[in-house]
Amino acid sequence: MAATDTPSIADAFDELIAERIDTCPQEDLSGLVGEILCQAVDNHLDALPLPGNGDTLERWRVLAAVAARDLNLFKLYEAHTDALAILVEAGIAEVPPLSVWGVWCAEVPGTTLHARRIAADGQLVLEGEKRWCSGAMLCTHALLSYRDPRGQVCLARADLDQDGVSVEEDGWKAVGMAATRTATVRLKGVHASPVDSPGFYLERAGFWQGAIGIAAGWHGAAAALAETLRQALLTRSDPHALAHLGQVDCLLGGALQRLREAARFIDANPATTAWQLALATRLHVEAASQAVLCHVGRALGPAPYCQDRHSARILADLPVLLRQSHAERDLAQLGVLCLESEASPWRL
Known about the structure:
This protein is of the alpha+beta class. It is about 50% helix and about 15% strand.
């Protein structure tokens, strides 16, 4: 087969999903999402281009395509592929075959994960708990953040097939994103290995590159809703709905350009910590996605919420996933960075 005829990862993923998710009852979705993710790993569909290696946009295209099909699957797939990228960035090229990874780095007040060294080579024992652990019942391995005695954020990798790992799933009350089975993970005497040095997780260039990859997923889901609106208007004449479609086109077009520009910058400057770029891109995509949620409902009424399983799931899941944004905190930080600019950042 010629190179030009080789299917992309996005195409192969789409073929793997087929119509299974769209026809899956809600109560069975979690099991199906886990099954598809494992099949994707088995078929090496997690071998995405690494961010900053010249093909960042293709990485984000795959993430957006998965998000357009199902945001629960996207959440778990993005975390798994992000973990693989983090390990490469840390110089750890080998991972257990067919392993499925989580990245559990949320720091919730009142919860603590402690680590103590048990060997000269730095091996660790983890004690405590981590919350917001998506895919906790599915993942075989995880990257977990903890604080060292100096308060620095550190990263450890752990095999989850240990007696000291327990999962509590009763904390998730939302309908949206329920199929991720996000849970609290408690660890007692769990052996782990350190990943690079203290501060690595937050200070590496890949942290903000990966943050934009999440926004690519937001965009993919919003674009899927926009396509639902576009298809609905192909066979009806409704000037008010067309106005909503026009606004959606403007919003998503602007977000699309932000993502493309960010990918070009990252590929040209792979070692640069693109903090301001990531904040601006994520906030732009978030605002566009929030607006698309509103416009699709106002244009089509309750139909996409009630009569189409695909759009109904996105409408339930996307508002939850968008809360990965830090909202006004990120806006305020972006404002500070604007003040620090030597010249006007908006000059044409």
